[in-house]
Amino acid sequence: MLLLTLRKPWNCRFLNYIATETVKNSKGNSYKLRRTNEKFEYYYKRLCPQEEWDEALHAMRQPLPLSFRFTSSSPQSFLLSLFENKFGSNLKRVPWYEPFGYAWQIQGIHRWNLDSDAEIQKNILREWDLGHLYRQELVSMVPVHFLDIQPHHRVLDMCASPGSKTTQALEYLGNDGFLIANEFNKIRVTNLIGNLHKFSSSNAHLTLSEDGRYFPDIVMKDSSILQFDRIVCDVPCSGDGTIRKNPNVWLNWHPARGNERHHLQYSIAARSIELLKPGGIMVYSSCAMNPIENEAVISRLLRDFEGDIFIINPPNAIALNYAQGFVSWDVFDKQMNIHKEYLSGNNNGQISPHLFPPKEDWIREQLLKTMRFQPHFNDDGGFFVAYIKKKNDSLKKISNRKNQNLKRSKNMLLPKTIGSDIFKVKKTLDLLGICHVELEGFFQYTSQYCSKKIRSTSKELLDICQHNPHLNIAGIGNVVLKEESRISSPLTHKFPTSYIHNPLKKKITKRTMYISLVDFKKLLKSEYLSSDEFPRAEEGLIIFVINNDNDGNKVESCLGYIGTSRISLNITPSMREHFCLKYTAF
Question: Which residues are noted in the entry as S-adenosyl-L-methionine-binding (predicted)?
Fold first, then answer.
């Protein structure tokens, strides 16, 4: 028989009775469930080595430990001492995540039992708000970390929201590189832009909202078509690998969820390969454990791009446990029928010929180079990763592809040069002693609501916006200056307090004032101090450089403002809390 109808063999119990418990979903809403699903367990038991199944199922029923990475600009020593004092030996450093910051996992602590400790929850949320740490699963850090992004690379993140991998990739880029982040979902793209503003270490990023399957060609200034050195293709998926942090997977899982997403995943990945430069590398990843969403997609890509792409061997530096990709699997429909091969008209549209394991030996050999991270391997989530390299002499493209969308959305943003404001900006930069800044990368949005904000990005990205009127632009660069409304200030513009990692701050050579740690604590404790305490201070924006009273070394710097009669810090409430916690000895 080519079609096997299984009469509920999954009805058997694999482990003891599972009690009902109260859990929370990804949005924090509470509900009751039992961490069991007969179809799920039957499906994945067939894919798991028999001797590992009990351990695997037990791991999937446990909450996901909390993990995070420090950003390169974070005060790591202070934050580390804060967490070490709280978690002790339960705080484990991830040895392979270097050199841009460090990654950590807190054993015994998961996302929702933080609610029981208001103090540590507040600390983590505050440092996240400041862009100092990003909560991210360890396996989710793998794709970008081992992608070998170089400072000069042109990088595309095809399915970017919420931005964990996007901001991670930006850490590796220098002044000569840039990143384009794409997110088709209009709600998710808003979240992406917020995280880019909060966490990005570079302004050289452009956010688009395009359908990844038909991502438009981008014309460069020299009329060539943009090809990318590196592409992150973390595709939309069923997400059953997140079962430890999203327990609702137990409630609604069935195999057709993977079948339904296969073609979407393939189409996005295929278009990504077309956009990849010969010799470039794309990483395909998903937080699904289903081979239909992973190995079946890779198998189809290898077949359709035969001779043009190949799978790279897993990186030697990776210190996580993983398994080789599958070379065989069963294809189920929603009713749990097994299909041994494709039969046209006998599957209610649920089964396509592309879902089945490859018969070609050369494809099977390639699939063994992909990586499967199972929940019980590293006390983490389920994940799949494949590094795909395009050959240097690649010329092939897939034909019969739907025409690209060349219509710009009415709500999309357009950049414009800062025009007459350039003289005001130059005056501000001169008064702050900021030199060697390329004003060609400064711009404003055409929207009247954004006209008082000066943004910055790379000149190359601005050229892309100018030469590609069809692009649906959702965001470009970051706000680096805002119009100053205080009459007493000699500056026409000021720094936005919410952009913690503003690169212009590091270039200030004038309007700085050295103050003692004692005076800094006074400013932290009070909203403002009398300007009589600093009689020689000039009105306007100031950079306070705080000296340690004991050895005279600089320990901190932050924005402030000197008015006619008072002096205050120009920082966010989160930053004030951060400093207060760091310097508690009032």
Answer: 183, 211, 234
Look at the alpha carbons of 142, 146, 152, 153 in this order and tell me if their dihedral is positive or negative: negative
Alpha-carbon span 355 to 340, nearest angstrom? 11
Q: 502-549 pLDDT, tens per residue?
A: 888 888 889 888 888 888 888 898 878 887 777 667 788 888 888 765
Could you tell me whether strands 554-562 and 228-234 are parallel, antiparallel, or unpaired per DSSP bridges?
unpaired
Q: Is 234 annotated as a binding residue?
A: yes
Q: Which domain holds residue 475?
A: 415-494
- What single string gives the DSSP state of each residue in 476-527? ESEEEEEE---TT-S-SEE--TT-TT-GGGGG--SSEEEEEHHHHHHHHHSS
Banded model confidence at residue 67, pLDDT cuts 50, 70, 90: very high
Computed on alpha carbons and rounded to an integer, the radius of gyration of the chain in Å comes to 27
One domain, residues 437 and 561: no
In a domain, 464, yes or no: yes
**What is residue 281's three-state secondary structure?**
strand
Would you give the distance in Å from CA 88 to the centre of its chain? 28
The answer, yes or no, to whether residue 554 has pLDDT greater than 50, is yes
> Is residue 38 one of the residues assigned to a domain?
no
Strand 442-445 with 473-476, pairing? unpaired
Q: How many residues does the chain have?
A: 586
CA atoms of 90 and 108, how far apart (whole Å) = 7
Would the annotation count 183 as a binding residue? Answer: yes
Q: Are residues 350 and 288 in the same domain?
A: yes
d(CA 579, CA 567): 17
Catalytic residue of the set 48, 287, 465, 558: 287
Please say if 287 is a catalytic residue: yes
